[in-house]
Backbone:
């Protein structure tokens, strides 16, 4: 027989775990670099850019385009890594909560 009360409790438990996992994302920090460490970008698990650092040797007006390219590369790399860490965090908190249903893609929810 279908247990509606049990199902509702499971849904509430899953919601609580999802919220906890999402709250933990703001504590994740990922730093990536480009140009052999000449540019470093730090992002949060919420995929927000927090800081960009440059090697002083890049502060040449003639190398403006190269600096911009290195910043883009470092930020994108950090965002990709933060996205992966966020997925791991969400999976860790929701593991075993949802059935493995073929074709069900929850990646847009960070799972």
Residues:
């Amino acid at each position: 027989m279908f247990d509606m009360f049990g199902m509702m409790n499971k849904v509430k438990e899953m919601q609580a775990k999802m919220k906890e996992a999402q709250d933990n994302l703001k504590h994740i920090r990922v730093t990536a670099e480009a140009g052999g460490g000449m540019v470093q970008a730090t992002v949060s698990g919420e995929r927000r850019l927090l800081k960009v650092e440059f090697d002083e040797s890049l502060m040449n007006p003639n190398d403006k385009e190269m600096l911009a390219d290195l910043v883009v590369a470092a930020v994108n790399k950090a965002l990709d890594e933060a996205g992966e860490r966020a997925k791991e965090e969400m999976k860790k908190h929701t593991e075993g909560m949802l059935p493995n249903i073929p074709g069900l893609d929850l990646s847009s929810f960070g799972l």
Q: What stands out?
A: Helices lie at 4-25, 64-94.
